[in-house]
Amino acid sequence: MEDMTRRELLKTAGAGASVLGLMNLYGMAQAAEAEKAPPMPIAPSKINIVPPKEFLECKQLSLPYAYNALEPHIDAETVEIHYIKHHAAYVRNFNSALQRLDFARSMNDMTFIKHWCKELAFNGSGHVLHTLYWSNMSPQGGEPKGELLNLIKESFGKLESMLDMFASASKTVEGSGWGVLTFEPCTKRLIVLQIEKHQDLSLFGTYPLLVCDVWEHAYYLKYRNARGTYVDHFVNLINWNEVERRYNAVKQSVIM
Length: 256
Ligand code: MN3
Description:
By secondary structure, this protein is mainly alpha-helical. Helix content is 50%, strand content 6%. It has helices spanning 2-15, 23-36, 76-106, 113-135, 146-156, 159-171, 220-223, 227-234, 240-250; strands at residues 177-184, 189-196. It has a two-stranded antiparallel sheet. A hairpin with a 4-residue loop joins β1 (177-184) and β2 (189-196). α1 crosses α2 and α3 packs antiparallel against α4. The N and C termini lie far apart (43 Å). The structure holds manganese (III) ion.
C-alpha cells in the first residue's frame, strides 16, 4: 500500500510539476529519477564532450515580470516555486539528457538511447511549454486584434467561443497536462488541443525534418518482425535534398 501510494505520488509530481504544494514530492521524484537513471561509466564532470558545432545549451529565460505581478490571479509564492524549482529542473534535466546523448554518441554506445530519448522528450517539452506559459501571461492581460482576431473568428466563430473551448479543454485534461491553442498549418486554422502529460516521446516546438514509419504495415510483408533490418535499409533511401529544403525553411523560425 505504501509503495503504491508513493508510486502514484511520484507520478503526479513528475508529470504535473505545476501542481502546488508538492515540493517535497518533487524532491522524491527527482531522487527516484536519479535512482533509476542508468549508471554512467565516467563522472559527468570528467567527460570531455565535444559538442556539435553551434550547440547551444538551453537556458531558462528570465521571468518577464515579478513573482507577484500576476496577483490576485496567481499568487507570488506559486509563481516563484513554479519558476525557480519546477521549470528550472526541466531545463537542467533537458541539458543533462542532451549531454548524455552527446556522450553516448561519442562512445558509440546506444545502450540507453531509449531512456535518454524519454528524458529528452519529458524535460525538453516541459521547458518549452513552461516558457510559453510564462510569456503568454501578462499582468495587463489584453485582447486579440487584427489578423489573429480574424483567424480566431474564422476558426471558432467568435472570440468567446474560442475561449470557452480553450477553458473547457484545459479543465478536462485527464490527469496532468496542458490546454493548448495551436496553429494547424494544413488547414491554416487555429485549433484547441489537450496535452496529456507532455512527454510522450514528442518534443514540442521541434519541426520534423525526416521521419521513418515504423508501424508494422510499413515493413511487415518483406521484413516480418525484423524492424531493425527495415530501418537499416531505410537509411539508404533518405532524400537529403528534401531534408535540407525543410531545414532551410524552418531554420529561422522562432518558437519562444
Ligand atoms: Mn508547470
